[in-house]
Sequence to fold (123 residues):
Amino acid sequence: MTTALVLALVAVGALAAGLLVGRYYVPDDRQVRRGVRHGRAYLRALSSVLARDAEGAILTLREVVNENIDDPEPYFALGALFRSRGETERAIRVHQALALRLRGARALWRRRGHAAPARQAPR
Fold:
């Protein structure tokens, strides 16, 4: 009888703990949501490029760049779009900004005592 009572109390306690954890624990999913927004923005930009709307693609990629300045991919895409439109000066400025940002990141890595990320060889 006492074993059954102890098992019942343990089961009720586990159920209560599970309900409380499920009710009040909220995982931090901001990074996941940001990734989803960026993925959708890339798809919108790609569909704009396919529809020959380079201006719409540039606006979409600028939104991504303004939200997350650490991601180099939108910079490459913006530079390529500017180059394809014949705006080489803007493309050069975008790529220079990216190079400065990456150079600063390498210096920060060295300052912290870590090995800097390896550069990829030009193709």
In short: DSSP finds five helices and no strands in the chain. The first helix runs from residue 2 to 24. The mean pLDDT is 80.
